[in-house]
Amino acid sequence: MEFRTLLIGGVFPALLLGMGTVIMKLSLRAGISLPIYLVCVGFSIFCYGAFFAFQSGMKEVTLSGGFFAFLMGITWSTAIYCMSYGISVLKLPVSVIAPLTNSNAIIAVILGAIVFSEWKDLNFVKVLIGTFLIVIGGVVVSRS
Questions:
Q1: Mean pLDDT by 10-residue block, N- to C-terminus, for the chain (144 residues)?
Q2: CB atoms near residue 51 (< 10 Å)
Q3: Cβ atoms of 97 and 21 closer than 8 Å
Q4: Does the keyword Transmembrane apply (predicted)?
């Protein structure tokens, strides 16, 4: 795998999502309600997407692609709402929420294996070891 591929596909998203969780707490501490927080986040996503859609000439649009993108938005925004609720209402620290929510990799591996038949290419021993390490790491970091 190319270094550029690792940076764009993994390192940058990890950094940005980690920073995003901290920015989430800053926003909530500044006194925004959860629904308005989601509206602001959604508007920024809309602007970002619209900019790149117009820049690319809005190619490659399908009804099923749009439907799955909409479903992704619903799942992501529900997760963000739950995290926001945990931080603002339940007063959970970022140091607890971040490691727990980042165990989403386990769910992605399981669903990818089933939905896309990626199980054919998986080394199950490595998957089990990785899953164990993610769970143990999440527990240890969230209890620190």
A1: 90 93 96 96 96 86 93 96 95 89 89 92 91 89 80
A2: 10
A3: yes
A4: yes
